[in-house]
């Protein structure tokens, strides 16, 4: 180290001219950048900036020329040089291009113009990206952790919009347009049995105004017989001139399509994060480097956010250092202490389960009560009864996280695990409450008072049970939205005013609202799960969700900039992105279960909806398959046979084993290479020590020669006790490193 | 600012577009912001470091002085920037700059004594910059020693007691947050 300090104060300037010095590994790594940009620019060009590298055409000459022009340009840009040097390099290239003869010259020129047009048009296109400006502002003020929440929200807006387009394009649009396009709509016929009796729920006569509000909020009355709900789609087929459009089939396929689309889109988005988290798990020893070298978020411009970031970095570093000590402590725990902690954890977990069970039971009671209670007493009471399940669920979601965060403090886990564990409990609470609601609805729908159940469901209480489920989801969605808005306006805003204007101790203690990313993500994942479940029963739900998330985006932005402060313990952008998507995937899996069960198992209602002619919705598929030509039909049968399933399973397993083996091999190679690197380093040390000794003995003999100079320089690079030659070398090395 | 006289010529803009990772709008915005800081209306005039540091984008950045020193081309290095230095800065911190260029400049910013390697002294200064350099925010000597030992254990592959550029780039390439956080948005 001393030699470097020594070097720093010396003002020698010069370059190492000796070939032996140039071969030193440390000097080589200083030159690393220069070499790399020369040798591998073509390879890198394709991977790093794909859209610029994709210009190569088939002809060899154009490919070659393109390589030349674009690699030179890439090169210039990618060199860490000052503008002056870059300009000179570019002029050199231009001069070289001038030597080329006519056509090639023209081609290079054309390529350059084409590229410029392309860059400009990309710029114009990027201006169209949703919420681009807002996201940039947020990024600039609060850094990448909070940004990841907002880009997640934007992703959900897009997903819901595409889901809406699917539903609209294949189901709603054909029905809406059929009368105008000489299409003939065939409605399914009621055969007069009791199952097909569907009393109209729209109010007759003079309707009090507030009834409309109730209807609008709960999806009953005039809203029930609109495009909003399943029951309205009582269309069997649309006959155009030559072909018929099978609405039931389209309805079912769109449902399957939107679930698959969501799955693929989420998996594709999370693939990157998954890879990263795998690498991070493997590289457990990189945590300190990540925090120190990539710790500062250069996007932060807000003074307050910068202070918080500093504090959180300090906190993280301190806790990480302490974690090692805690690990030591855990290892040293006595048997009695261990016993005490485990007992405590078991008791607290039992308590958590009891709290959850209490919540679920109250949701169940509320659902049944709200379904059976029909008396019309007064407007407000009606509305509350109508909304009772939603209110109970929201209350549960509001209170249980508070309880969990108190409980976790007594359980004595490590800090990182504490946060994750609380979150998992909250996720479970949120999603399980939807499951309980659906289960209680399901038990209501399928239970018949007496043993006869002619329609397969409780047709007296629910003549069109799908619409009923749709209404329930619609209510949850609306209520969730109202709560988000109300919390911002009636809780966060007054809290901020109180904290800012009253300087007393209590208000200070309370502090400003923290913008906690995990809780907010849970909130929108919950909404998305409802949307996935509800889209089958309420086809316009994705449209409502899209609008809802757009508004939520702006509400959250305003509340973040005005009311909240960022959380003291921030989320890292990379890990959190992956975490969001995992929670979303859990939500999707949960949403798939009720939709699949209701499509395949429960008899669909006979009084409404597109599937009145079938016992279950799924029957449309076998029915359609039986009508298509023989060859195709055989193919479908083959695809659904056991033989195909078994062979498919075997092939998948084989592929998986191959990839696992490959990963294992890579891992071993990496560890071998790492060992080799450390070995080389040791070798280098050893050799330089040998050189030192040789130099000492040479000096003893006092034979000044040119070759000796080399040794002196080399040895003093690591050994500070020698003469100025060392400064000369290290200084020149540093010089080249910083000014290449 | 923004008047007809201070407009960038079109050829210059397209040249800058070729030489940096910035888009046309970003270059024009950078020019507008830079000419607000300038006294005289000429591209080659330097703006002293103290004035650059008043920009809100840099004001709360603990590395602001190092950034100016690294990107300054003045002789002797006083941290003052010309417009082109400023564009270089923005280009390295832009969205589309490669990991390689970002890590190169990050290395130079973190290399407080400009000697081409990150040694224990550099790391200590770096950590103090991150946590804030006051008595109550600093790590105590014991913790600092432990932390530096851990960092070197993780990143110093050839075990020579310092982190050099290629080791640094190796570590950075495995750090997923770096590219997204090493960014300055005007």
From TrEMBL, chain A:
Keywords: Membrane, Transmembrane, Transmembrane helix. GO terms for cellular component: plasma membrane. It is a multi-pass membrane protein. Pfam families: TMC (PF07810). Signal peptide: none annotated. InterPro entries: TMC, TMC_dom. Residues 66-86 are annotated as: Disordered. The keyword Membrane applies. Belongs to the TMC family. One of its GO terms (molecular function) is mechanosensitive monoatomic ion channel activity. This is Transmembrane channel-like protein. It is found in: Membrane. The chain crosses the membrane at residues 155-177, 249-267, 342-364, 384-410, 422-442, 473-493, 578-602, 643-665. Residues 464-574 form the TMC domain.
From TrEMBL, chain B:
Residues 98-133, 143-178 form the EF-hand domain. SUPFAM superfamilies: EF-hand (SSF47473). Pfam families: EF-hand_7. Keywords: Calcium, Magnesium, Metal-binding, Repeat. The keyword 4Fe-4S does not apply. It comes from the Eukaryota. InterPro entries: CIBP, EF-hand-dom_pair, EF_Hand_1_Ca_BS, EF_hand_dom. This is EF-hand domain-containing protein. It comes from Denticeps clupeoides (denticle herring).
């Amino acid at each position: 180290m001393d030699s470097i300090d020594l070097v720093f104060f010396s003002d020698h300037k010069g370059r190492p001219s000796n070939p032996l010095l140039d071969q030193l590994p440390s000097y080589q790594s200083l030159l690393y950048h220069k070499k790399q940009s020369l040798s591998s620019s073509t390879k890198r060009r394709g991977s790093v900036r794909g859209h610029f590298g994709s210009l190569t055409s088939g002809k060899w000459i154009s490919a070659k020329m393109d390589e030349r022009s674009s690699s030179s340009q890439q090169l210039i840009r990618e060199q860490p040089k000052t503008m002056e040097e870059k300009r000179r390099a570019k002029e050199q290239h231009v001069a070289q291009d001038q030597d080329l003869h006519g056509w090639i010259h023209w081609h290079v020129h054309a390529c350059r113009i084409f590229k410029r047009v392309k860059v400009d048009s990309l710029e114009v296109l990027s201006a169209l990206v949703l919420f681009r400006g807002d996201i940039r502002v947020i990024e600039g003020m609060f850094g990448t952790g909070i940004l990841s929440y907002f880009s997640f929200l934007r992703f959900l807006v897009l997903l819901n919009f595409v889901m809406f387009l699917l539903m609209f394009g294949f189901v709603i649009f054909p029905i809406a347009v059929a009368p105008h396009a000489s299409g003939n709509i065939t409605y399914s016929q009621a055969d007069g049995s009791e199952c097909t009796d569907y009393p109209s729920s729209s109010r007759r006569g003079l309707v009090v105004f507030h009834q409309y509000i109730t209807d609008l909020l709960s999806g009953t009355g005039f809203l029930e017989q609109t495009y909003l709900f399943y029951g309205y789609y009582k269309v069997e087929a649309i006959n155009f001139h030559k072909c018929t459009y099978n609405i039931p089939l389209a309805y079912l396929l769109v449902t399957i399509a939107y679930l698959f689309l969501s799955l693929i889109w989420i998996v594709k988005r999370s693939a990157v994060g998954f890879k990263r988290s795998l690498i991070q798990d493997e590289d457990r020893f990189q945590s300190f480097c990540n925090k120190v070298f990539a710790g500062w978020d250069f996007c932060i411009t807000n003074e307050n956010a910068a202070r918080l970031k500093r504090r959180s970095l300090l906190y993280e570093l301190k806790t990480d250092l302490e974690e090692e000590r805690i690990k030591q402590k855990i290892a040293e725990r006595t048997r009695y202490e261990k016993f005490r902690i485990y007992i405590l954890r078991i008791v607290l977990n039992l308590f958590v389960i009891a709290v959850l069970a209490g919540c679920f039971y109250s949701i169940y009671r509320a659902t049944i009560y709200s379904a059976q209670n029909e008396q019309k007493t007064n407007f407000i009471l009606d509305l509350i009864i109508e909304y009772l399940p939603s209110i109970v669920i929201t209350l549960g979601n509001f209170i249980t996280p508070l309880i969990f965060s108190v409980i976790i403090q007594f359980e004595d886990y490590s800090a990182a695990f504490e946060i994750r564990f609380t979150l998992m409990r909250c996720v479970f609470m949120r999603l399980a409450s939807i499951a309980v609601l659906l289960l209680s609805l399901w038990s209501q729908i399928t239970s018949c008072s007496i043993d006869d159940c002619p329609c397969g469901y409780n047709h007296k209480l629910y003549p069109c049970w799908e619409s009923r489920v749709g209404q329930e989801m619609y209510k949850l969605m609306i209520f969730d939205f109202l709560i988000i808005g109300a919390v911002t306006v009636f809780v966060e805003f007054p809290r901020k005013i109180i904290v800012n204007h009253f300087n007393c101790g209590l208000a200070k203690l309370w502090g400003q609202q923290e913008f906690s990313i995990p809780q907010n993500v849970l909130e929108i994942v919950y909404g998305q799960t409802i949307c996935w479940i509800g889209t089958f029963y309420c086809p316009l739900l994705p449209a409502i969700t899209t609008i809802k998330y757009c508004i939520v985006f702006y509400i959250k932005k305003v509340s973040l900039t005005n009311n909240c402060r960022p959380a003291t313990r921030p989320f890292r952008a990379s890990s959190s992105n992956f975490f969001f998507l995992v929670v979303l995937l859990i939500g999707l899996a949960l949403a798939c279960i009720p939709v699949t069960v209701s499509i395949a198992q429960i008899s669909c209602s006979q009084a409404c909806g597109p599937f009145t002619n079938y016992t279950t919705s799924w029957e449309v598929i076998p029915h359609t398959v039986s009508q298509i030509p023989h060859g195709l039909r055989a193919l479908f049968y083959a695809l659904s046979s056991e033989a195909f399933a078994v062979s498919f399973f075997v092939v998948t397993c084989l592929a998986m084993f191959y990839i696992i083996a490959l990963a294992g091999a890579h891992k071993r190679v990496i560890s071998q290479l790492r060992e080799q690197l450390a070995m080389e380093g040791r070798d280098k040390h050893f050799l330089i020590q040998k050189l030192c000794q040789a130099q000492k003995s040479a000096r003893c003999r006092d034979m000044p020669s040119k070759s000796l100079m080399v040794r002196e320089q080399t040895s003093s690079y690591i050994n500070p006790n020698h003469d100025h030659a060392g400064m000369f070398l290290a200084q020149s090395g540093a010089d080249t490193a910083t000014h290449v | 600012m923004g008047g007809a006289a201070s407009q960038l010529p079109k050829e210059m803009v397209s040249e800058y577009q070729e030489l940096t990772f910035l888009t046309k709008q970003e270059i024009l915005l950078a020019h507008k912001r830079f000419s607000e800081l300038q006294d005289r209306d000429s591209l080659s005039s330097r703006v002293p470091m103290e004035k650059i540091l008043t920009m809100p984008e840099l004001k709360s950045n603990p590395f602001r002085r190092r950034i100016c020193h690294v990107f300054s081309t003045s002789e002797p290095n006083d941290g003052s920037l010309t417009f082109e230095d400023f564009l270089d800065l923005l280009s390295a911190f832009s969205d589309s700059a490669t990991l390689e260029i970002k890590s190169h400049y990050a290395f130079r910013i973190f290399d407080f004594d400009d000697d081409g390697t990150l040694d224990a002294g550099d790391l200590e200064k770096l950590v103090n910059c991150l946590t804030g350099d006051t008595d109550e925010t600093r790590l105590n000597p014991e913790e600092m020693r432990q932390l530096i030992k851990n960092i070197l254990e993780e990143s110093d592959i050839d075990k020579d007691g310092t982190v050099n550029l290629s080791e640094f780039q190796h570590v950075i390439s495995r750090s997923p947050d770096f590219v997204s956080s090493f960014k300055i948005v005007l």
